[in-house]
Amino acid sequence: MSQPNVIEVSAPVPRFRDAYQTLLEEMRAVPADKLMIVNLDIPTAVTTVLGALPQIRAMRAQVMAMPQMDIARFDKLEAYTLAVGYANSLYLAASQPSESLEDLAAEGVTMRDLLVAEATTLSQRRLIDGQRLKELKGANGYRNLAVDLFTLAAMVREVWPTLGGKTTLQLSELDQAETLADKLLTSASKGLPSSRRPRRTASARLRCSFRHTTTCDGS
Question: How confident is the model over 26-42, as pLDDT tens digits?
């Protein structure tokens, strides 16, 4: 008797990692003599830029009039910001003792519970489709937990402009959920040997920081 076909649905790639992977070759092309010491708090910079993106984009016409500004790089500011945030996470993960999968999972379950509670309230207000909540995978297993975190964050992001004060969630918490889900999947898979990680991740962090910083200051 033939077995039914099983369709394997791949986990969505969070936007931080997606931006990093998309821009990796561009970052590698930055000359070593152009790199700068990172002397700012990257998580704070990332949160600040992401929060100000609508106002920054509204100034595109004025930016285009600036002869020294590369408008193509200006249009990629969000991608640069996400990429440097992810590169910083890789650097920290390689430089510090690894967080156990069990600890990550426990943190993920707590975040999932928070997002489910908020999403349920929003569905009761008919602000999001409650049917999508029934399609969540559940917190049993690292992959299912990660997929649910991606899905819940995406659901809330889709309606974020319409929420106003109808949720206690912050955008930074959605970023945190995506990053946590990414860590879960990354930690559960095989990576580079730990002895090779710090050097490579430090270089990637510097190169991403260069693009992000020079785009922000227009140099």
Answer: 888 888 777 777 777 88
